[in-house]
Design brief:
This protein has helices spanning 6-19, 22-47, 55-72, 77-99, 106-124, 150-172, 175-183, 187-192, 197-223, 233-247, 251-276, 282-297, 302-309, 376-383, 406-411, 429-435, 445-449, 454-470, 486-498, 516-531, 543-549, 567-572, 574-580; strands at residues 134-135, 140-142, 145-147, 225-226, 336-347, 350-361, 365-369, 391-396, 399-400, 414-416, 504-508, 535-539, 552-557, 560-565. By secondary structure, it is an alpha/beta fold. It folds into three domains: 6-233, no CATH class; 333-413 and 502-585, P-loop containing nucleotide triphosphate hydrolases (Rossmann fold, 3-Layer(aba) Sandwich); 426-499, no CATH class. It has a six-stranded mixed sheet, sandwiched between helices. Strand 5 and strand 6 (350-361) form a beta hairpin. Helix 3 (55-72) packs antiparallel against helix 4 (77-99), helix 10 (233-247) crosses helix 11 and helix 16 crosses helix 18 (454-470). The radius of gyration is 28 Å and the shape is elongated. The termini are far apart. Bound molecules: adenosine-5'-diphosphate and magnesium ion (MG). Adenosine-5'-diphosphate binds at residues 347, 350, 352, 370, 372-378. Adenosine-5'-diphosphate (ADP) is lined by residues 347, 350, 352, 370, 372-378.
Length: 585
């Protein structure tokens, strides 16, 4: 995460009102208000990958709550801030609960729908003043200081901007932050690492909505009146523009985007009519074209472009040592960990797994082999809860798990890697592996935002570093995971799985793409894990690798088990030779 010299920036912001004209202060105030909403979108859309066009409606809830309660009931603005936040949280929770479960286009469409309906609600409720709105909103008083002018208000707005940025930056650099970033890779990996993804989505959504609500509260007391116009869908779209143009993956991008778009609009509004010799909303047209151009030239927004111009910062390249995290008690040697009984999985008419049974014991390497399409990965998905079996029973350490979500299975000590690597390519190897330690920490949003989670965080990162060293990727600890060769990325996934302290490891083609020497290292590592009492179920195509490592082998073809036994006997089985080697003697 990028960190700017905050004190210098704060000092600059502090002296600005003393030097700048009123008009510029007004612009800066608006930029600050927009930036607060856009920071929320960075978290929601940039980090968690959930697109919302409806943030303006939450700004409206914050603004209308305070406007109505202060003017009609004479409540203190500080009290109405809390009421507005509570109301926003309730509405956001309700809306999020309904819409966040919808994947694909449904979520953005849902946000458009609520953006429109809340806007019309503001305009049609008589007690909120209809389309004329509410005027006479009182100023905010801070320690006896009445914030009446824009110049006074400026400090409050930018204080909130800086606090929001600090809190979100802290959050991103934490256990919760990693779980939110994991959402962007789809929910399958996050769930397999134990992340409660519906919960994580709601958290991101609530934080973004609350920031928008605070912005609305500030807006109402800056303007001293509210009407529905600024909370319309077009403004919701503009917020998203700001975040995207600034750089949706970066908190400072929100400020940059808010500033750029506000200034650009202002400038176009002033100059275009003069240039064209007639008035009209030409700025929106030019504005739209400019947006398209910017996004075409810089897909990740402008903040990364600016970062590249700055001299490279000295990055932290060391992981602090910490006490070793507590480990789960070992299963008794040779006790059965996993018992798959008559499991079937159908995809429509296709029977991908047909009444398959197998067992894996502690301290055993079991290999699952078979031609492509035999149903091996499908079985892994059934076992790990990614896609539940159609039929059959699965027991893990004595408990039935075939209907459990994968995060609950992960909590019980099963961890896995994926045939198609699921890493967050832009994040470092260290951060990727630390996602695996999710269930070994407990600190939530508030401690993370306030940086009260540092002791636990040190422990989690030290554990991740240990696992990275263990799999032999120490030199790549701080490299972006996506920059590694594919074979090495598979090893990163093994480190991530190990980081959860599993007693059963599911590895889907771990040796694919590795060189001979690397395969030997991997075999050695897996052998060591077995000796420590871990159970390992692996899918692999390299027969030398499998036969040298596995204690037992299950052979699959067309979704069915055709042979099972120690490697030597399986290798001689005529059915296996027929199916697997295509009958070649
Ligand atoms: P393997 O890992 O042994 O190569 P898979 O388990 O990936 O095989 O696939 C088994 C069969 O199930 C294949 O025919 C594949 O096309 C099919 N299959 C796998 N996943 C799905 C899915 N999500 N939807 C439909 N068919 C699938
Ligand atoms: Mg497969």
């Amino acid at each position: 995460m990028c960190r700017l010299p905050l004190p210098a920036l704060a000092a600059l912001l502090a002296v600005a009102p003393l030097l700048l004209p009123e008009f510029t202060i007004t612009l800066l105030n608006y930029i600050g208000l927009y930036a607060i909403v856009a920071v929320g979108l960075v978290l929601l859309t940039g980090v968690a990958g959930l697109t919302s066009f409806g943030q303006a409606a939450f700004v409206g809830i914050g603004a209308y709550t305070t406007a109505w309660l202060t003017t009609t009931w004479g409540w203190s603005p500080w009290l109405t801030l809390l009421v507005g936040l509570a109301l926003t949280a309730m509405i956001a929770f309700f809306l999020g609960f309904i819409t966040l479960r919808m994947g694909g286009h449904y979520l953005p469409l849902g946000t458009i729908a609520w953006g429109i309906s809340l806007y019309f609600l503001f305009g049609n409720l008589e007690f909120l003043g209809g389309h004329t709105g509410i005027s006479g909103v009182p100023p905010v008083t801070l320690f006896g200081w009445e914030l009446k002018s824009g110049r006074d208000f400026y400090y409050l707005i930018w204080l909130v901007v800086l606090l929001a940025i600090a809190a979100i930056s802290n959050l991103l650099d934490s256990r919760v932050g990693r779980s939110l970033r994991a959402l962007k890779g789809g929910t399958v990996m996050a769930e397999a690492m134990g992340v409660n993804t519906p919960h994580a989505k709601i958290v991101a959504f609530l934080i973004a909505a609350l920031l928008a609500s605070v912005s609305g509260w500030l807006y109402a007391h800056l303007q001293r009146f509210v009407n529905p116009t600024p909370f319309a869908l077009t403004q919701g779209i503009e917020y998203l523009f700001m975040a995207v143009v600034g750089g949706i993956g970066h908190v400072w991008g929100a400020v940059l985007g808010a500033g750029l778009i506000t200034l650009l609009k202002q400038w176009l509004q002033d100059w275009l009519p003069q240039l064209l010799g007639q008035s009209g909303n030409f700025e929106m047209i030019v504005f739209g074209i400019a947006m398209v151009l910017i996004l075409q030239r810089a897909r990740d927004g402008l903040w990364p472009v600016i970062l590249k111009q700055l001299p490279a910062r000295h990055e932290k390249r060391q992981v602090a040592t910490a006490e070793i995290l507590p480990k789960r008690p070992l299963a008794a040697a040779n006790s059965v960990l996993l018992e798959v009984h008559e499991v079937s999985k159908n995809f429509g008419g296709l029977v991908a797994n047909n009444r398959l049974s197998l067992r894996v014991a502690a301290g055993e390497v079991m290999a699952l082999i078979g031609p492509n399409g035999a149903g091996k990965s499908t079985l892994f998905n059934c076992i790990s809860g990614v896609a539940p079996a159609t039929d059959g029973e699965i027991r893990f350490i004595g408990e039935r798990i075939e209907r459990m979500p994968s995060r609950d299975i992960a909590r019980r000590g099963m961890s896995r890697t994926f045939q198609h690597v699921r890493l967050l390519g832009q994040m470092s190897v260290l951060e990727n592996v630390a996602i695996g330690a999710h269930l070994r920490g407990t600190q939530g949003v508030l401690p993370a935002a306030l940086r009260l989670d540092r002791a636990e965080e040190r422990g989690l990162l030290a554990e991740a570093a240990r696992q990275i060293e263990r799999v032999g990727l120490g030199e790549h600890m701080f490299d972006a995971a996506g920059s590694l060769a594919l074979g090495k990325q598979r090893i990163v996934e093994i480190a991530r799985a190990l980081c959860s302290d599993p007693c059963l490891l599911l590895l889907d083609e771990p040796a694919a793409g590795l060189r001979y020497r690397e395969k030997q290292d991997l075999a050695e590592l897996l052998g060591k894990l077995r000796n420590e009492g871990m159970g390992i179920l692996l899918v692999e195509h390299d027969m030398d690798f499998v036969m040298g490592l596995a204690d037992r082998v299950v052979v699959m073809e067309f979704g069915e088990k055709i042979a099972e036994g120690v490697p030597e006997s399986v290798q001689r089985d005529p059915r296996v030779l027929e199916a697997y080697l295509g009958g070649v003697d």
